[in-house]
Amino acid sequence: MDERRGQPLARDAMAYVLAGGRGSRLKELTDTRAKPAVYFGGKSRIIDFALSNALNSGIRRIGVATQYKAHSLIRHLQRGWNFLRPERNESFDILPASQRISEFQWYEGTADAVYQNIDIIEDIAPEYMVILAGDHIYKMDYEIMLRQHVDSGADVTVACMEVPRMEAVAFGVMHVDANDRIVDFVEKPADPPAIPGQPDVALASLGIYVFHTRTLIEELRRDAADPNSSRDFGKDIIPHLVKGAKAVAHRFSASCVRSPEEPAAYWRDVGTVDAYWEANIDLTDVVPQLDLYDREWPLWTYAELTPPAKFVHDEEGRRGQAVSSLISGDCIISGASIHRSLVSTGTRARSFSSLDEAVVLPYCKIGRGARLSRVVIDRGVVIPDGLVVGEDADLDARRFRRTDKGVCLITQPMIDALG
């Protein structure tokens, strides 16, 4: 609690979510939507995790910067996140690149996406800024990170996750001293620096930052005046503060929210088709690593009004059934067999079809007698009767987007091309 006011620091904070990312490694899944708007877990979107963390942490002033193919993201935010009320000193702002600085200038980088909205931030006047990426899956109490930031007297606090040292080659790595003060920041190093006393462990940046607002604004203005800057937090802002100010690492394990059912701290970048498929399929485990059923830390989202899922036909070989699967509302499983799959809202699966380790996005139709395994099916895809995927690797690769791990991404244009 803040000794001056007797209230959490989150009440004096604004969460600023960077949600303009292209997400090109998700291939066709981001052809029509930004990565933060990609569906996850049956009825949610990826961005709901960062937003829910902010809300559950007590932050009531939130801004979301959008850019790439933002329509479905903005529509989702308007429908699902419009309950914050200005009369309660709450706010929710959607911030597309609106050319405030120049009539021709889109957001040039993550730092520029905040800089172009300094006037809005100054109008809201929060004491602290929590800068978040909108495209990761995790549960975290930002109040704990805010408290560390204030208690340590840091100019910037960077959330980091402990990872095996040689796995850190894919991250920005924080080199810290014995007190977790950051002494160097290295982007995707070939030989990552270890944590003092832990030679096999490194601290990887999660792209979550806490600033005093005045410090952030000063730093953004300085960076905007630098013609050599790429206008990016990870490449420009953080390294500059590491060299000339006090930057401190915050360990994700200290603020990760875990229910009694969750065995370990959970954070995923579902930035590839394989990682996306794995994270969704993991939810079907008896005790999944990520607990979506935790009422103490709910996942807020736009909840469509739907009838319950329905399972029909009870004949041998034509039985509507699902085992080790998540089936969302408004799904009708009509004589189909589903195993270890995640089926999103409004899907229809017809008789004699089967799904095995399938991630099905909303409003798909699975044709009669189709057999699909290890697939991701994009929203609204109509699977033809009798289509078989997952049994002939060469044939799959010619027709669909097949990953190195044998997962097939199926979109409607791919189906249409089958003739």
TrEMBL record:
Record field: catalytic activity: alpha-D-glucose 1-phosphate + ATP + H(+) = ADP-alpha-D-glucose + diphosphate
Entry similarity comment: Belongs to the bacterial/plant glucose-1-phosphate adenylyltransferase family.
Boundaries of every Glucose-1-phosphate adenylyltransferase/Bifunctional protein GlmU-like C-terminal hexapeptide domain copy: 307-410
UniProt pathway: Glycan biosynthesis; glycogen biosynthesis
The keyword Chaperone belongs to this UniProt entry's keyword annotation: no
Quaternary structure and partners: Homotetramer.
The protein's enzyme class: transferase
Residue ranges constituting the Nucleotidyl transferase domain according to the UniProt record: 16-284
Superkingdom, taxonomy of origin: Bacteria
Keyword terms: ATP-binding, Carbohydrate metabolism, Glycogen biosynthesis, Glycogen metabolism, Nucleotide-binding, Nucleotidyltransferase, Transferase
Gene, per the UniProt record: glgC
Naturally occurring in which organism (per UniProt): Sphingomonas adhaesiva
Keyword Transferase applies: yes
Pfam family of the protein (one): Hexapep_GlmU
Gene Ontology molecular function terms on file: ATP binding; glucose-1-phosphate adenylyltransferase activity
Function: Involved in the biosynthesis of ADP-glucose, a building block required for the elongation reactions to produce glycogen. Catalyzes the reaction between ATP and alpha-D-glucose 1-phosphate (G1P) to produce pyrophosphate and ADP-Glc.
Site (Could play a key role in the communication between the regulatory and the substrate sites) residue list: 67, 106
UniProt name for this protein: Glucose-1-phosphate adenylyltransferase
The protein's Enzyme Commission number: 2.7.7.27
Sequence positions that bind alpha-D-glucose 1-phosphate: 107, 172, 187-188, 205
One annotated GO biological process: glycogen biosynthetic process
